[in-house]
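Bench notes, afternoon.
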Amino acid sequence: MKDNFNNFIDLASGKIGGKVLYATDEFFAEKENLIKPGRGVFLPDKYTDRGKWMDGWETRRRRTPGHDWCIVRLGAPGMIRGLDIDTHHFIGNHPPFAAVEGLYSDSEPADWCDADNLPWQTILKKSPLQPGSQNLFAVRNASVFSHLRLHIFPDGGVARFRAYGEVHRDWSKISENDLLDLAMVTNGGRALICNDMFFSAMENLILPAPAQNMGDGWETKRSRNPDNVDWVILRLGYPGMVQKIIVDTRHFKGNYPAACAIDACYSASDENVIKDAVEWTCLLNRQKLEADREHIFESDAINAHGPVSHVKLKIYPDGGISRLRIFGCIRH
């Protein structure tokens, strides 16, 4: 089933701004671990003054009626298509059951203890969990959510919580004079395809925060062909007129590309773009790059063009880029 989620992004991920706001209990392990990268690690000999150290969210053994739950604010509002309630390394202390509710709200209560009074929608009914496993659930709900509530019954530990879906932005509220990063994932941008991402993933290019290290960008393997060109194609969150481009090689010092260029097209079909059944035009001519710096290209360096829906970043001959920013104004 996980293959069915590959076309979606983890809206709960801390990398795109997701945050765990509240938990009824986190005696053994902190709630913030739920949205960290990876599946969690196990260190056999690591203990805290409260017991065994665990890389996840773990509550104490409940001796009273009720169950535990936590609130996650998504990095961007969106439609949830799938859930992963991962009990990796939690064996003998995992929750037997879980459920998930969703809520859309522009504001947050002063005290999440009153969360029961909010208009939650059930997106996963109470369902059994397997220990030490990725528990995957498809979601069939077309509503847009900003917050999720993960219930565990009655207590225990969950290593990671993933909410795969599609970013939703109300573009009718955006003026055609507003300049914003149309490629950023929280604005609906998507990394569709690339020819190589041997060392790190193409999706990192459009994360909101600056790269933390070299592994937090997009890096291709070393090419032994001097004429090699590596590339990645991004779909913008909304078609627009590009006015500013930032190509950031932060952290890439001995492995940055020698140069880059960017092509653009307009297409209503991602499939046609992936199959190269579109007409690309040059948006940014080939530019020399330097190590570990932001390269800013203003409108005078950007070729004349119409509305753009997709961009193709080309790097010569290989290497790593930490972030790509495509600033533009939308066209309704």
